[in-house]
């Protein structure tokens, strides 16, 4: 007989691919978890409720205000300085202080390749050796022929659905992993949405 499925409300609005990392035991209580580019905190609801040691950064003050309000409701014991209004390329969390860094639907707002790498290095720096970096970001994988470049070779494209995003591909992610000194712990997984956009899940372990 199958075990009962927990109610959806238990996990809030957590990204299903991040939930997969929980299910596989890569994110466990006692870990320090930084949501880099947290938005309003949709991936933190369950983690706060379950007693994880969570941190968040976003350059939008309204987003961090929303995360702070969420913590006041779900985990009032979390110090407020865990939540900071900061861009990813200028985070002030200490080096090697986090067990997990989440970067969900934020890196594709990079202005160009140089900005992308600054955002990546800024998010990577607080991660401990052996820590897990979880990213979901827009890519050109599977929709290459449908994406129109804008601003020359900046790496930004107009998607079939009209959105403008910086798009990565497999080669770029492989090169970035080498530069960051990280290793894939899952194969790249890409979700295509009716030929309109493509989202890739990229999960690395920090080698040193």
Helical fraction = 10-25%
Number of E-state strands: 11
How many H/I helices?
5
Give the end-to-end Cα distance, rounded to a whole number of Å: 44 Å
Can you tell me the residue ranges where pLDDT is under 50 for at least 5 consecutive residues? 3-8
> What sort of overall outline do the alpha carbons produce when their principal axes are compared?
globular
On the 0 to 100 scale, the average pLDDT is 93
Compute the CA-based radius of gyration: 17 Å
Task: Tell me the series of helices and strands, N- to C-terminal.
Answer: HEHEHEEHEEEEHEEE
Structural class: alpha/beta
Oligomeric form: single chain
Strand content: 25-35%
Major beta sheet, specifics?
8 strands, mixed
Can you give a write-up of this model?
This protein is an alpha/beta fold and 208 residues long. 24% of the residues lie in helices and 29% in strands. The chain is built from five helices and eleven strands. The longest helix is centred in the N-terminal third of the chain and has 14 residues, at 61-74. The model is unreliable at 3-8 (pLDDT under 50).
In short:
The protein is an alpha/beta fold. It has helices at residues 16-23, 45-49, 61-74, 113-124, 170-180; strands at residues 32-36, 53-58, 83-85, 98-104, 127-138, 148-150, 156-158, 164-166, 182-184, 189-193, 197-206.
Keywords:
single chain; 208 residues; 8-stranded mixed beta sheet; 5 helices; 24% helix; 29% strand; globular; disordered N terminus
Task: Please specify the SSE layout and strand pairing.
Blueprint: H1 16-23, E1 32-36, H2 45-49, E2 53-58, H3 61-74, E3 83-85, E4 98-104, H4 113-124, E5 127-138, E6 148-150, E7 156-158, E8 164-166, H5 170-180, E9 182-184, E10 189-193, E11 197-206
Parallel strand pairs: 1-2, 1-4, 2-3, 4-5
Antiparallel strand pairs: 5-11, 6-7, 7-8, 9-11, 10-11
């Amino acid at each position: 007989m199958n075990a009962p499925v927990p109610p959806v409300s238990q996990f809030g609005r957590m990204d299903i691919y991040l939930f997969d990392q929980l299910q596989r035991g890569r994110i466990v209580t006692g870990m320090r978890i930084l949501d880099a580019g947290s938005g309003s905190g949709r991936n933190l609801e369950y983690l706060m409720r379950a007693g994880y040691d969570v941190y968040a950064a976003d350059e939008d003050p309204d987003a961090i205000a929303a995360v702070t309000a969420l913590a006041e409701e779900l985990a009032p014991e979390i110090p407020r300085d865990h939540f900071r209004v900061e861009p990813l390329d200028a985070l002030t969390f200490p080096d090697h202080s986090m067990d997990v860094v989440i970067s969900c639907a934020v890196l594709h707002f990079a202005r160009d390749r140089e900005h992308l790498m600054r955002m990546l290095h800024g998010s990577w720096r607080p991660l401990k050796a052996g820590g897990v970096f979880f990213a979901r970001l827009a890519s050109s994988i599977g929709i290459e022929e449908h994406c129109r470049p804008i601003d020359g070779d900046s790496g930004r494209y107009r998607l079939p659905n009209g959105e403008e995003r910086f798009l990565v591909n497999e080669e770029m992610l492989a090169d970035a992993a080498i530069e960051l000194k990280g290793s894939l712990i899952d194969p790249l997984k890409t979700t295509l949405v009716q030929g309109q956009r493509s989202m890739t899940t990229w999960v690395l372990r920090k080698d040193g």
